[in-house]
Amino acid sequence: MAVLRMEPYISPSSGVNALFSPGSAFQIPTGVRTFTFHGVPDSARLLWLALGSLVVLLALTAASLRSSRGDYRQVHRLLFARHCDPDQTLGCEKVVGWATEKTGTLDGAIFESSFRESRITSPWQSDKYGFRTVGTAIMLLFGCYFLALLGYFPTVFSLGDTSENFRRQCQLANPTGPLDVFQVYHPVAFKPESNGCNQELLLMEHVFAFSYGKPFIGNYVPPQCDFDTVRINLTVTSKGRQFDRLALMFLGDIEVFRTSTAEPTSNGIVWTYIKEMSQYIALWKKPQKLIFDLGNLIDDTYTGPFNVTLTASFSQQKNVKVADAILPISARRSANNSASAFNLPADNASVAYRIPATAWRAIVSISACGQSAEEFWWSNVFSSDTKAFSDTVGDLYGYSPFREIQLLIDGTLAGVVWPFPIIFTGGIAPGFWRPIVGIDAFDLREPEIDITPFLPILTDGKAHTFEIKVVGLDVSADGTATLSKSVGSYWVVTGKIFLYLDESATNTPAGASDEGAVPHVIAPEPTFTIARNLVHSPYNSSANESLSYSVKAERTLTVTSSLFSWNQTLSYSNFGLISNQGTSQSNRQNILGETRSTEIGSDGALTDSRTTFEYPLAVNTTYSTTVGGFSIDASMSRGLDIDSNGGVGISTFTLTSGPSSMSTKQWGQAHFSSVAGGAFSSADTTDDFKETSGGTPYNRSVRATDGIVVSDTDKESQVPSRLLTPQEGDQQVLPGRPSVKSILGRGPGILNL
Length: 753
Fold this sequence. Notes:
2 domains; twelve-stranded antiparallel sheet; five-stranded mixed sheet; about 15% helix; disordered N terminus
């Protein structure tokens, strides 16, 4: 007996061959769900297929005998009737237009995508009593029904051999289908052609519902083959109302992946992200405790769980050499089945290690992002101004819009990170990030600090401390700025020490006579230029009208040993304006930096690794409140530019090995309103991406309007879609974040859940 079961759609790129194989369950793509037949013998399936094909063949033969253009178009409409919602005429036309466009002609009649010029005025025109038309229609419907149950429409009605185009057709014809959300990035092949090992493992299949403090715990066992390349595929589905959430993946105590979720919709969302993980080969080669921490909340209001599938592929690619050992700078809680991230400033983010004497190269990567009061750190004000608009919009967040993440070795500053301003999918205006999420929202990259100059003292056999701090600015009344001792709550922080080992390496201990072995650190305090102007309201003596403020900063840092040097040059600026008694705010920020590692060979030759980066950001927001609701109007322009001539291993910052150049920009406008009857959103977002890495260029420019992709230069990645009519401009949504404060970081309401 056949049993019909509904399951979430998991694989957005599965081919038809994956959908049907003898002796396996049938998976029939509907664009929304996957239907699965179990317990049906192969002979019965083949008989069903033959019967459906015969009926369709007979119906098409009957239709072709009449060979009139109008009659054929009537049959053509019947063929696609199952895909179309009568209320979505334009969507149906585009689906049919897409299919017929690639089909050509039949019996001299050109297939067209519009039904509006049909010559048929009545279905009874083609014969006196209509028996042939009605009979043909019935035969077609039954035949299509048989084939639909078997999942054969993708092979019948498209020239391609995959289910992806069919799934996209169904999404267009059926506006209740799940929304594909995506990050624009240089695509990574999940299963590249392998010279040897070629295995795929399911690492996790888990539903994160009420999951705060309850991470997924799994035991990873390496495949029994020789591999040097590992990539993961993260596929997530969700439906309902939910916050955007932060997620961290650990192998033991070491964070290897940080991502965030998109906010789901009432009809559901789905996304897939493929990530290079070969930089962690030293971990993948051994059994590990896999911890995936995605804290979520389910109650009467927040109803959306996250269904997460994580798979890994293992192959032999003759990849570049990566680190031989990796040490965590983390809370090291895996033994308690807990995630190991530090929360700063509450935690003491410090660890101690004895570094092996065979280490010849050491690089620290830092993963850090602000949450809660620190999520919109780049829009914060000076601490003295946090109550400037308390009577109108409430308290603001302080410590200035400047943040610095510091790495200290034995209390000595070894390097700093001026963080990229990540914007999660619930921030600023939710419509910006549907379906194009923010830059790096699905893969938060990790800046690197080269600590090789410290190796002569780190390899002395003694324990040495590694500490991470996050600081802002304290600004005095006279405008003098100094680095603060703390920041708001809170930052999620971990680090890793990548060690490259060589049995022949000889690092001079600190106590040796060679004074050049001891690193020389030049790290003056950064220079700051501060401006501020608070304007009182001319209409209300007890209220302030506007606050303008600006911060400019410069910093250099150099660490030098006898054979190695590490140099950083950084520049920062932020110009902020809060006006309309606090309801409007604009920030223009830019961060530029250069890092340089220089190795001095035994022959005196220099090997130089250089990386430059820039993070431009401009955000304007205005909100208003009404009885039982609020609205937000916003515009944004932001970017991320990285240029590198390469270095050792696979970089956690460039996400690749060797030389690379990447530039991505996002800009757009959005409106969001929340009222008693629901929430409405409209937005226009463009993402322009260019990257050359691994000797391969990749360019993509994609634009989305009100949740629909309207243009996309990448023909392989693009999701065809229909243009919206003006009446459809405001799309009803389920807001994840419930208040102005949670969306903008200022204003009324609760901050987060």
